[in-house]
Amino acid sequence: FTITVDECTVNIANFAQFTTRCYCYNSVCSIPGPTIQLTPGVVTSVTLTNALESGSTTGTSNTFKTPQITNLHTHGLHIDPQTDSIFVDVLPGNSHTYAYNVPSDHHPGFHWYHSHHHGSSAFQVAGGLIGGIYVQPCAAAYSNCTRPDSRPRHASSTLRTHSELPGRRPVDRSSASDLPTALRAMTRVAMVMSHLPLDCTA
User: Fold this and answer.
1) Of residues 120, 133, 117, 148, the one with CA closest to residue 179
2) DSSP symbols for the chain
3) Which residues is 100 bridged to in the sheet?
4) How confident is the model at residue 155 (pLDDT cuts 50, 70, 90)?
5) Per-residue pLDDT reduced to its tens digit, 23-72
6) N or C: where does the chain have the smaller number of CB atoms within 10 Å of the terminal CB?
């Protein structure tokens, strides 16, 4: 499928309106962008199209530059770094296709992607070029797990699911609790943003 980077106007009900950059899918722009769903053992192709207006394509390294150039970088996926290269430059009017070959035993969980063009990454991410990645659970991800009863008693007690704990309701477990602090913070931001009455129009 194709994700497009384009300028959009964001309206937060009874609060603010501003123009920024959004990820768009099927002509619907949003902050955060669409969630990419991946299945372990399956190659998923994502085409990133840059619909921003042309601008400067030169600048000094490690300084703010070229805000119209973009790319897509993921966090949490065990994939070929050549595929997930932060050195890909998608210029205005151009596209680039990422083929994510997710290992068949990849752990499930919720991860994220964002723009990582050096020179304007912070500018674009702060402006809204972020999105979620959901890796679906699969049997192969657990095939090499050690049985709980073969682990030390103090460790096996931590393997209980939420539904096994007193007073807990069943939940869909993921690797979210194991993500770095920065990613957990970004996930919270995405969750908050997804509940705000945002009206994004390209």
Assistant:
1) 133
2) -EEEEEEEEEEETTTEEEEEEEEEETTEEESSEEEEEE-TT-EEEEEEEE-SPP------TTSS--TT-B--EEES----TTTT-TT--B-TT-EEEEEEE--TTPPPEEEEEE---TTTHHHHHHHT-EEEEEEPP-GGGGTTPPPGGGS-HHHHGGG--GGGSTTPPP----GGGGS-HHHHHHHHHHHHHHHS-EEEE-
3) 44
4) very low
5) 999 989 999 999 999 999 999 999 999 999 987 777 777 788 899 999 99
6) N
